[in-house]
Amino acid sequence: MTDVRGWAKLAADARHKAERLPFGQREAGLGEIAKSLPGVTWSSQTLRRAVAALEATERLQAEAGFAAADLQAYPLAAVEYASRLFRRDPEGAKAAIGRLLKGEITVAQLKRLDEELQPLDREVGRGLKARFRKSMEKVILNAIEEKTHAHLIANPLTSEVRKGAREGGEDPLRIPDFLSGGTDRSSVIPLYGSIEGGRHAAFIVGPYGDPSTYQSQAFDWVAKAKALLAVFRCTILVLPEDCPVKPYQYWRAMLRARDYELMLLKISSDGRGEFLEDPLGRPLRER
Q1: SS in 3 state form for 161-191?
Q2: Span 236-284, pLDDT tens digits
Q3: Are 222 and 166 in contact (CB under 8 A)?
Q4: How far apart are CA 170 and CA 79, in angstroms?
Q5: In 3D, which of 18, 94, 23, 87 has the Cα closest to residue 50?
């Protein structure tokens, strides 16, 4: 029988407790749960790492065939190395993890393999986004048009270097993944003054190889979408299948953004799109 490490047992217990935390109280609640764990002095950040590693062992079992309990017999850091390796190079990671479990390589050697592949992270992120955008584009655009009656298309301006369009920074029209109102390549949003023909803009959150990144980046995404309401009629954050919704709903409510101006479009595992209402405020309204 595999001897599961203490970190995994604590993470499983903490995850069960965290699932019962009220909306908007997760951060404070995680801190209290971390303090209550026996035999350790974990911060809420360490607890999040442990829960993420626990979930990584479950994904590796489902996607790569390694028993979660076998992986949980290793230190938390070893699971993080294995998870990152699998995200970057699934086939290479299967071989390396298999060798680790057989005792043919050490955790230190697995760490070195992880470090060798770290420079590829940026390229991996770009690849994930390109694949998601290509596979989900029709679903995203159809869902937005059905809800808002606005016709959006993939934004060709995102890949353009438009020198002089905005000295000292980029033009807001280059930021969205999808945009309404036409895509005249000479278009710019004026620095001051009124904006004619308010546009809808949609942004794909991530995607991230490490699902825990969605939680840590939630404020940044929602704050950006809220700020861009100054120049767009409506901003829409597209949340991939493995993106948790509560952090984004929380920050939307905390930043006082109305859910018919800053919309959250969740893509489900069966490839459908659903707009999320604000659980603490008024229901989503049609424009």
Answers
A1: CCCCCCCCCCCHHHCCCEEECCCCCCCCCCC
A2: 999 988 888 889 999 999 999 998 899 999 987 667 888 987 765 544 4
A3: no
A4: 39
A5: 18
Cβ atoms of 78 and 110 within 8 Å: the answer is yes
Where residue 190 falls among pLDDT bands split at 50, 70, 90? low
Task: Give me the residue spans of the domains in the chain.
Answer: 6-105, 121-275
| pLDDT tens digits, one per residue of 31-52 | 889 999 999 999 887 888 898 8
C-alpha Rg value of the chain to the nearest Å: 22
Q: Are strands 262-267 and 273-275 parallel, antiparallel or unpaired?
A: antiparallel
Q: Which tens digit of pLDDT belongs to each residue from 136-184?
A: 899 999 999 999 999 998 887 665 434 444 444 567 888 899 988 765 5
Q: Mutual orientation of helices 6-18 and 26-36 as an angle, nearest 10°?
A: 140
Contact (CB, 8 A) for 216 and 241: no
Query: DSSP of 25-54, one letter per residue?
Result: -HHHHHHHHHHHSTT----HHHHHHHHHHH
Q: What is the reported pTM?
A: 0.56
Distance separating alpha carbons of residues 106 and 97, to the nearest angstrom: 10
Indicate the helix (H) or strand (E) that contains 117: helix 107-117
With 0-12 / 13-18 / 19 or more C-beta atoms within 10 angstroms meaning exposed / middle / buried, residue 64 is middle
**φ, ψ of residue 171 in degrees (nearest 5):** -75, 140
